[in-house]
Amino acid sequence: MNKQKNMTTIVVLSGKGGTGKTTVSNILIDKLESKVFLDCDVDAPNLHLVQNMSTHPIEMGYVGLSKYKIDLNKCIGCGLCYSLCAYGAIQKIDNIYSIDTYRCEGCSLCYVKCPAKAIEEVKQVDGHTYIYKGKSKLFGTAQTNIGSGNSGKLVTEMRNQIQSEHRYSKFKVIDGPPGIGCPVIASMTNTNYALIVTEPSQSGLSDLKRIIETATLLKTTPLVIINKADLNIELSKSIQKYLEENGIVHLGNLPYDKNVIAKNNLDLYDKESFFFKKMDEIVYALLNIIKANKEKEKKNESSSCN
Amino acid sequence: MKYILATNDKDIHSTISPVFARAHYFGIYDTETKNMKFIENKARLAQGGAGVKAAQFIVDQNIDKLIVVRLGENSYRVLQLANIEILQTPEDTLENIFHLCESNQLNKLDCISKGLHHHG
Amino acid sequence: MDKLSIAFLSGKGGTGKTFISTNFANSVPNASYIDTDVEEPNGSIFFPTENKTTENVSVKIPQFDREKCTGCRACVDFCKYNALIFIKRPFLVPEVCHSCEGCYHVCNYGAIKLVDKKVGEVEKSLCRGHEIISGKMKVGEMSGTPVIKCAKETSTKDLIAIDCPPGSSCLVLEAIHDVDYCVLVVESTLFGFHNFKMVYNICKKLNKPIGIVINKYDGENSLIKDFAAKYNVKILDIFPFDRDIAEKTSAGNLISNNPLYASRFKIMYKKILHQLHLGEQNE
Fold this sequence. Notes:
The complex is a heterotrimer. Chain A is of the alpha/beta class. Chain A has two domains: about 1-55 and about 135-295, 3-Layer(aba) Sandwich (Rossmann fold); about 65-125, Alpha-Beta Plaits (2-Layer Sandwich). Chain A is built from eleven helices and eleven strands. In chain A, strands 3-6-7-2-8-1-9-10-11 form a nine-stranded mixed β-sheet, with helices on both faces. A two-stranded antiparallel sheet of chain A has the order 4-5. In chain A, helix 6 (about 150-165) packs parallel to helix 7 (about 180-190). The radius of gyration of chain A is 23 Å and the shape is elongated. Chain B is α/β, with parallel strands linked by helices. Helix content of chain B is about 25%, strand content about 25%. Chain B has three helices and six strands. Chain B has a six-stranded mixed β-sheet with strand order 3-2-1-4-5-6, with no helix packed on it. In chain B, helix 1 (about 50-60) packs parallel to helix 2. Chain C has helices at about 15-25, 75-80, 100-105, 145-155, 170-175, 190-205, 225-230, 245-250, 260-275; strands at about 5-10, 30-35, 50-65, 85, 90, 110-125, 130-135, 160-165, 180-185, 210-215, 235-240. Chain C has a nine-stranded mixed β-sheet with strand order 3-6-7-2-8-1-9-10-11, with helices on both faces. Chain C is elongated and about 70 Å long. Chains in contact: A-B, A-C, B-C. Chains A and C meet through helix 5, helix 8 and helix 10 of A and helix 3, helix 5, helix 6 and helix 8 of C.
């Protein structure tokens, strides 16, 4: 139990998609020799494609909030449900009512109010978690079903399953989802560092600000990497300036590398490349920061607030 | 004096659940009768707002103090509103925890943790 | 002509949905560009605009009338999201409220009133005859679907280009809800192909006509091309891996300001119309 407290959890995020989260996570897992790692991008998971786990995963369906369906044999066509649904999930086509499963959010109002008791509850499997229990490594990933509004829940469920294994790893790496919504928040809670991978574009900068805001809200230390930095040196410099002015740690820059983008698989990368050298420097800087913070914590250990 | 806490086994020798809202049971200990009662936690299977639902359950019991290892923000706010006293304990067996309670060795909860899922 | 709405989606983030959809809207006359990536909207940055208007997007949350409330707890018992608590009287936990308005309908004593809660904004501006619309969700809010709905309703043009959120969540479904055509923007990488199949299945399930644009093509990886050939899916265009395009785009420029590129996007539009058996207006 105590050992769990010595684990450092790093979540890799981006705000904007496609900046290189999974690529960085993949390399980080390798360089930090992380034994416990997760892919929390449950809407579009990719990490399992490049992590070669030798065991089969334990798959579990995750049952979400039930949805509802109209039994046309009992429906009297009064249209009450149609007028009540706040999500516009009830459709009326040629005087026949039906529920759009993708729009239904499971509030049950139609079910409760239907005068003919013509609405039935339908259990929903929102997604699946996949836990790979290797001899030395523990890997969790998950996939939501189409139209799921429960990505955040699935992330939480998967994180709970990983945690209940009580496996120790000095560094726990989480490949995070894009955006700033529910699944991002669920992947960010109870982590020590948020490694934000951004890129020098107008869109990248505005998204960076939003993700930093979210990290600060959740009390996770943001550290920023500017990927594809040479694509726009001016903008990279202004991002660095923004970070400096706001006291956010700039971990380093990575170059735009066509091969890294095209290949995805660690084994196919050129380890002598400039990209990899820069990645080494970044990991080195990261480890120094973690070490320095741990020493600070030891000194401050008077109040036990965890 | 009645205490309540979250646990995953119906046994006074088992450990307190480190997670409040999604534990399997709540255990209520009465210091006068020295009796322990276990009730299933319905909030465990809640889709969202498990912390809220678990806290509501606590509010509806007739207890004096809640004992937790840690507590999430949603639960905390509901319990605060209802003026329920919350004590903090390290992870330990139920038996040991009640001893500590009775000898007034447990402190009030002084900080809230961001739970594993912030939104319902 | 009837309204025509075209959604640009990808599954994986960063494949170039915004790159393709902004340039597409810029190249065809009288179009709306709608950015429905409400968590991280960034398409409007490409258009120099004027006359910006902002509209608030709100949902309803309950407010309780203490005098009328009898303490029956019907509202608390009804709420599937556990957003209502009862401590001598009902209280709302706004963070988990889904704005279903159900508690209001379930109260038999008229003790609940519905009030507005702001969840985001929709910005609209004009650029050279195009409507540029952006939906933005408030950080920490429950759901982005109301913002997406509102953004789509804001358009007054007959041709709408919808820039979708990444992934396959309820946000994406809301964005493509009633569109006429789906352009799948794909990267020909392992990750890109994997996530492409996901959105392809969604579009097929919803019976949407589909076309593919392959972006950042390296000339080698033929996963997508093989898939398209096998399943008879139309490839609308292929953009090669081009550092020049990447640099210009990262600087916030639309490559379709160059007439050579604009004509490529016009051809894309024609191909879509042809696939839908529609004639072209405004020629």
